[in-house]
Amino acid sequence: MPLQFGTSGLRGLARDFTPERVARWVDAYLAACRIGAQVFLARDLRASSPMIAGAVRAALIAAGRKVVDLGALPTPALALLAMAEGAGAIMVTGSHIPADRNGLKFYRPDGEIDKASEAAMRAAHDVGARALLDGPGVLERRTDAAQAYLARYAGAFGAEALAGMRIGVWAQSSVARDLLPALLRALGAEVIELARAGHFYPVDTEAVSPETRADLARWCAEYRLDALVSTDADGDRPLLMGGAGHLVAGDILGVLTARALGAEVVCTPVSANSMIEGMGAFRATRRRRIGSPYVIAEMLAEQAADPQARVAGFEPNGGFLLGFEAAAPAGPIAPLMTRDAVLPLATVLAEARRAGGMAALLATLPARATSADRLRDVPPEIAHGLLDSFATSPEARAAFFAPFGPEQCLDQTDGLRVTLADGRIVHLRASGNAPEFRVYTEAATPEAAEALLRAVMAALVPRLAA
Q1: CATH topology of 148-362 equal to that of 369-464?
Q2: Which of 75, 186, 242, 380 is deepest in the core (most CB within 10 A)?
Q3: Which residues is 41 bridged to in the sheet?
Q4: 272-316, pLDDT tens digit by residue?
């Protein structure tokens, strides 16, 4: 199967990342993105990632580049160091998708590549373009990237930011599982590590199963936690549960972080909670298609129109992008134009401590909740066929949504987002990363959003049967 760009990065089955295919895509990246003499490299903890990283390393050296191999490291830590040194970067990760898949994320010296760069890379790949430098490539291994990433947050938040808090860290197989406890301790928290996995376990922070939620809530009660945190495989999507056992949605983390840091303009996918516009906390909200490259493109457009604008971006998976120098509790924090899990976790935990608890902090927001999940093993042609039938036939759409209520309006920015007459929202789309069908719902309470989600998914199952 060919490797393809999804919502963020090049994705495919792990077995399809052969040395020859990897080399061709690495050459396309070097040529299309005009990458210079040095490229940073890191990977997650999937079983296939060391092999693929080896293929990337070999391809870069063959092209005459100096490869700075950082080993196993969160994506935002890789991006932070590479951008600071004006270099390109490649992250080997499949993020949250199943263990039999993997991927490559590409960075220019100024940050994560955008959709225009993806198109240029596809064109370069198709013609076999190369950008060779004179002389042999070289390899350097460094171990300072994690410390630089820790210092970024320790300096901005300070040693007392989380003092008195008891925080659990669900270690699983996240590449951030050692770094995250170290950071929380540096900010003053007592940390309890939980459930370190000996095998790769994919975590989708936007679609946490009821069974996993129950496990996390049980740990909160058993260990008397103020909060429980984790990330996805490559450490750029956060997960946070309050001590009472309620999962905080990623877009809520984004809203709270943007507000705390003083953002004026927020850029976010169309699937994010509609409370953003109703809060009155931001001068403008810009919504785009799902995927960090689209969020970045909108952020860059806002900055081009007003270089002084305090622009931030976030996604419903919780990944946060900072586009301006913000004032954190203990000092300034520099922009980082890539998805980051640590910034929203540290910010929201510190805000919860100041507010007297997570429940008190969440009570400052409008009463609007989202829920999300996905149906697995849905062939793309089946998923797109159903969406096309709903998009082109109002009658077919009305028949499907009849049990949930009449349609008030339809948004086709990315898939189908239907606002019902009672204000509830159902958003359907095919995944850009895996054979999955995504479902997002929104309602006045978490319980209502979850009930709507389960009902819609049950109605979809027979229609998506291959």
Answers
A1: no
A2: 75
A3: 69, 90
A4: 999 999 899 999 999 999 988 999 999 999 999 999 999 999 999
Distance CA 32, CA 270 (A): 29
Residue 77 one-letter amino acid: A
* Nearest of 204, 227, 235, 247 to residue 349 by alpha carbon: 227
Residues whose CB is less than 8 angstroms from the CB of residue 190 and which lie 6 or more positions away in sequence, other chains included: 165, 166, 167
The verdict on whether 174 is a catalytic residue reads: no
CATH class of 4-143: alpha beta
How far is the C-alpha of 394 from the C-alpha of 86, rounded, in Å?
51
Residue 86 CB partners (closer than 8 Å, separation 6+): 36, 109
Cα–Cα distance between 319 and 343 in angstroms, integer?
9
DSSP, residue by residue, 69-125? EEEE--HHHHHHHHHHTT-EEEEE--TTS-TTEEEEEEEETTEE--HHHHHHHHHHH
Catalytic residue, candidates 95, 271, 274, 292: 95
Dihedral of CA atoms 341, 424, 274, 365 in degrees, nearest 10, equals -80
Domain extent listing, the chain: 4-143, 148-362, 369-464
What class is the 369-464 domain? alpha beta
Mention the CATH class of domain 148-362: alpha beta
Mean pLDDT confidence for 417-430 = 97
